[in-house]
Amino acid sequence: MKKMRILSGGIQQESHSFNPTVAQRSDFQVTEGASAVEQARGSNSTLGGVVDAAERAGADVIVPTMFRAQSGGPVDDAVYEEVRDRMTEAARGGNFDAIVLPLHGGMLTPTLSDPEGDLFRELRKVVGPEVPITSAFDLHAHVTHDTLVHCDFLAAYLTNPHDDQGETGRRAFEAARRMIEGNFDPVCAAVHVPMLTLGNDRTDEDPLQRIHRCASEAVSRGDVEDVSIFNAQQFLDVANLGQMVLVYGNGENARAATLAKELANMLWEARDQLIGTYPSVESCLDAARQAIGKTRYVLGDQGDRVAAGGPGDSTFILDKLITSYPDLRSLVPIADPNAVQACMASGQGSTLTLTVGGHGCAVSPPITLTGEVLSVGQDASLVVAGPHDAGTLTNIGPYALLKAGNIHVALTERPNAYLDPEYFRAMGAEPTEMDIVVTRSGYHFTLNFADVGRCVTVDTPGMTSYRVEELPFSVARPFYPVDRIDFSPEVRLRRRR
Questions:
Q1: pLDDT, mean over the chain
Q2: How many CA atoms lie within 13 A of 45 on its CB side?
Q3: What digits encode the pLDDT tens for the residues 279-312?
Q4: 226-284: pLDDT as tens digits
Q5: What predicted TM-score, i.e. pTM, was given to this entire model?
């Protein structure tokens, strides 16, 4: 029996419309071919899920290229076009049985508000209507009805914080396999809900936990084939920003449309509950001071989350530590290429005075401090311990570690989210030796730092704060809660043929 051939790969990045720094090719980690497959195998990544599921099914996975970057500003058009052209060229000559793409779904370029949809469209032109195209997206993807036109099946992460990336890739592959074998005729019932979730949107807490339970029970009963609930990233100035509910039936399935409406109504009815609040930085630093020797605190800087597209150079927490909590042993990351180069020029073991941060983050000014350069390097590699992104190989880029009193400043040329303790360890800093560790994340760090200390997302100002009414949206509105609007669920059905 002929082995299935699966085309996979693509580009993953989450964009922030109001981050003015355009992501360039140098911001991406690029793998391809057998190396991409080998690195993904066994990892908790969407590509890893595709590879592992395909290999269990005896299928070959071909990855022409895989671009992966931290969140940030829109991606340079030329970078996306390179990926698109390599993927379509491979599709044109590959005689593939299916295309299964591990993407993010929340990417922008300066000219495209839906590059993933554009990629589906171009691939469909090459392979025609019969070859299944499926994809795995982040739960925070921006999904429009146009996105679904050329994608036969789209699976979202079902968890936030995300720990099911590999499982989502598996779902995307299995849908493609069943289509190839003639066992699955996907009919998608899609409902757009014009609202944002703003902070209280963990799937292991209500109300999303309750909504996801309703969806999973319907799948377990066999009422429908699959359900994805997308809570769109909140910083995309694009048309029809909001939630998207996708329910898949197998062929004609009235229950899919009914369930899609039901879930959309549940989201809308819970709209005010999905707006969260966070403790102040001072309250957490006070608690850490009282708990020295007993509990360390790992803080998510909510206003400057690189994981949500922030610049990663806010000095807001650093300033609090310097001025009021210098006794706390702390570890704070700052993205600042000039500071890294100054540390490299000065050398490991030297003492120097330099100004750090506050360039991209307009709400916190640069800070000048004097410290010892503990380590420097042109690059550092790490394997994420997880569970979020477990087994994923990541490169930090040029870095320096500066110690000023009790404060350790982890400096990098490019922004990093620090979702995992291994980021700091790769630079020579040990999080378990600190009283305070700061990350550029709001959710996912809570999974990977659970054994390090008490994980708390704190209320800070900045580009990724959930104070979205302060952002200059010009296209995305109206949406709740910024705008008071009426809502009645409208189901759109998408059939494969």
A1: 97
A2: 28
A3: 999 999 999 999 999 999 999 999 999 999 999 9
A4: 999 999 999 999 999 999 999 999 997 799 999 999 999 999 999 999 999 999 999 99
A5: 0.96
Domain ranges of the chain: 1-183, 185-276+470-497, 281-465
Joined together, the tokens standing for residue 60 give: 């070959």
Rounded-to-integer distance, Cα 344 and Cα 285, Å: 31
Give me the residue label for tokens 């495209």.
112
CA 233 to chain centre: 9
> Top-level CATH class of 1-183?
alpha beta
**Neighbouring C-alpha atoms within 13 Å toward the C-beta of 390:** 15
Between the two ends of the chain, the Cα-to-Cα distance in Å is 27
Helix, coil or strand: residue 99 = strand
The 3-state secondary structure of 201-240, one letter per residue: CCCCCCCHHHHHHHHHHHHHHCCCCEEEEEECCCCCCCCC
CA dist., res. 355 & res. 231, Å (int): 38
The CATH number corresponding to 185-276+470-497 among 1.20.58, 1.20.950, 1.10.1740, 3.30.70 equals: 3.30.70
